[in-house]
Amino acid sequence: MTTAISIRDLTKTYESGHKALDGITLDIKRGEIFALLGPNGAGKTTLISAICGIVKITSGHAKVFGHDNTTNYRKARSYIGLVPQELTTDAFETVWNTVNFSRGLFGKPKNVAYIEELLKTLSLWDKKDSELRTLSGGMKRRVMIAKALSHEPDILFLDEPSAGVDVELRKSMWRQIRRLRESGVTIILTTHYIEEAEEMADRIGVINKGKLIVTEDKATLMKSLGKKELLAYLDKALSSIPKSLSAFDLGLSNDGLSLVLTYDPAIEKNGVIAFMDTLKRSKIKCRDVETRQSSLEDIFVQLVGAS
Length: 307
Ligand SMILES: Nc1ncnc2c1ncn2[C@@H]1O[C@H](COP(=O)(O)OP(=O)(O)OP(=O)(O)O)[C@@H](O)[C@H]1O
Ligand SMILES: [Mg+2]
Fold this sequence. Notes:
The protein is an alpha/beta fold and 307 residues long. It folds into two domains: 3-223, 3-Layer(aba) Sandwich (Rossmann fold); 227-294, Alpha-Beta Plaits. Helices cover 33% and strands 28% of the residues. It has helices at 44-52, 73-78, 95-105, 112-121, 137-149, 167-182, 194-200, 218-225, 272-281, 296-306, and strands at residues 3-13, 19-29, 33-37, 59-64, 67-68, 80-83, 155-159, 186-191, 203-208, 211-217, 228-234, 250-252, 258-263, 286-293. The strands form three sheets. It has a six-stranded mixed β-sheet with strand order 6-7-8-3-9-10, sandwiched between helices. Strand 1 (3-13) and strand 2 form a beta hairpin. It is elongated and about 80 Å long. The two termini are 31 Å apart. Adenosine-5'-triphosphate is lined by residues 14, 16, 18, 20, 38, 40-46, 85. Adenosine-5'-triphosphate binds at residues 14, 16, 18, 20, 38, 40-46, 85.
């Protein structure tokens, strides 16, 4: 396994005295999609900017394919494409010129065939001669992705790629991002959309108040922290949870017609079987039961709440 990015004890304190990053250590593997998840102000943009060399690191270091991004900035930066959170485009320029110009900024020779393919992949080919001001927000975001990929980087950073993008476009963008990964690009994205992390990421890092509180494979994260829920739909409404069920982690719906049991599938005590037994003994009848895995959203709220 090749390490694309290695970050050690990275700290960033802004001039204001605010410590936006507090001892971040993280390795990103070549070819993975890594999602950085965290609430507003957690430090996601600061971390990405620090790796890309836009924000000056206070202490610690970040290396890109072994090249220190401070002492060997140009080399480190050449591997990276960045789609910033804030869209900045030259309104009167055409899509074609903007993307080609970006490539030139990295000192790469013209490659018309590559840019054509890139615009086609991002469904922008029919807009190549349009001025940016005439494009929709979602199209502009795709132009930003095209700009970031114009110099054929090995690593793509996407800071909130779905902000302001509708559901359909978001799904098509996810497909395009996956296709990029298949072509060997390492992808790091930040997102507020849990669904996006759940759908896209191989690994997830949860960041809060400048600290990485968890870094885990998505599947492991969901398995180790994921509790299950059992919904029991009752025959008759209950006004409150009966004493006989007090040993269980239970909630009652507002209409009193369903009980929600939260349980850890790894521990049977107070789990489903004991609950069903107790229901029967308490003469509470249910029409139907349903189980569901708690979502990444529940896990996220749990983690951030506790840190
Ligand atoms: N240039 C700056 N000067 C001073 N403080 C800053 C600066 N940029 C960001 N901060 C502060 O650093 C913290 C982290 O900000 P950052 O933009 O990295 O958060 P974020 O996780 O990207 O949030 P969001 O989800 O809103 O994009 C915030 O408290 C923010 O106010
Ligand atoms: Mg941000």
